[in-house]
């Protein structure tokens, strides 16, 4: 459902699951776009209406790859027709919408999966393994940096949904960094946010390119930075536990664990040696994948595909085993709740700042 930008990443992941998944149809309001996607990918049927697609093909699963404002209504239509849903982030746009969709899935006995793909990067999965094997001890602090260039920000046109109101950038891109503390530390219970980099977009929207937030979560504290329009793409996580710290570079898919060792003051050298070996090995393997992709010997090397492939495969594995997906409606809701808290605290920050200026 939706033949836009992200649909090609999903179809790549589904083709890799060809032994257990058949793609039966594609649907988009824009029929010409859906037809082009159908032909490119050899999909049997094409529709411009979700209702017609559900009635004629009765799919087991629908991937909801639509703009965020229609995630809830499209998911409800699919669930009512008896299909499981796999929804792109953000799951929905409010807690109320999340609760409705989840209640419907529960009544119908169907599953919801949400694509928080950064939490499926192999380097992030390595972190989860290290936590599971008690290498870090109890987690205390998590820091997430997510800064991306966005050429359309300066030049416009600002027609995309995320540019149509101040908080929409956060709902569109915030789930990437915010899904990390929710995965590691549980639900966010309090947020305090500062925004900067104010601009007025060509459509009149008041826009902030930097969002820095401190979060208190159920099992620890986190800090997240979301910045757009910067010159450099960085996506990284720094985790401090009682026994060790970990650095996950999501952009380069590398993982480093720095732990207390029995070598006393030689700790740094031992950690440096082991991590350097891992970094060199991973960098060489990234380069090999890139070079083979560029030479046309294998599919192009895109970091996003690594995480989306793993996220979609995990969803279908859970369905096949009759288990709740790892990133289900509950975790999707936790991330939407975090987005709401960050947005509310950012508006409180602005009111406070403006109050000070007036008072001054
Ligand atoms: N996980 C990621 O890394 C990632 C990356 C990009 C986008 N996304 C998410 O994927 C979703 C889709 O984003 P996109 O970039 O592909 O958007 P897009 O605008 O490129 O595509 C959306 C498509 O949905 C169609 N559409 C809109 N309303 C419809 C309706 N009611 N019925 C049928 N079709 C309809 C449009 O015609 C369009 O083709 C968003 O939730 C976005 O946040 C995720």
Q: Provide the gyration radius in Å.
A: 21 Å
Strand order of the largest sheet: 7-8-9-6-10-11-12
**Contiguous helical run count:** 12
Report the structural category.
Answer: alpha/beta
Which compounds are bound in this model?
Answer: nicotinamide-adenine-dinucleotide
Biggest beta sheet summary? 7 strands, mixed
Could you tell me how far the N terminus lies from the C terminus, measured between alpha carbons in angstroms?
52 Å
Helix content: 40-55%
**CATH architectural name of the largest domain:** 2-Layer Sandwich
Characterization of this structure:
By secondary structure, this protein is α/β, with parallel strands linked by helices. The chain folds into two domains: 104 residues, NAD(P)-binding Rossmann-like Domain (Rossmann fold, 3-Layer(aba) Sandwich); 203 residues, Dihydrodipicolinate Reductase, domain 2 (2-Layer Sandwich), CATH 3.30.360.10. It has twelve helices and twelve strands. Strands 7-8-9-6-10-11-12 form a seven-stranded mixed sheet. Strand 7 and strand 8 form a beta hairpin. Helix 5 runs antiparallel to helix 12 and helix 9 crosses helix 12. The radius of gyration is 21 Å and the shape is globular. 38% of the residues are buried. The mean pLDDT is 95. The structure holds nicotinamide-adenine-dinucleotide.
List keywords for this structure.
single chain; 360 residues; alpha/beta; Rossmann fold; Dihydrodipicolinate Reductase, domain 2; 2 domains; 7-stranded mixed β-sheet; 3-stranded parallel β-sheet; 12 helices; 12 strands; 45% helix; globular; binds nicotinamide-adenine-dinucleotide
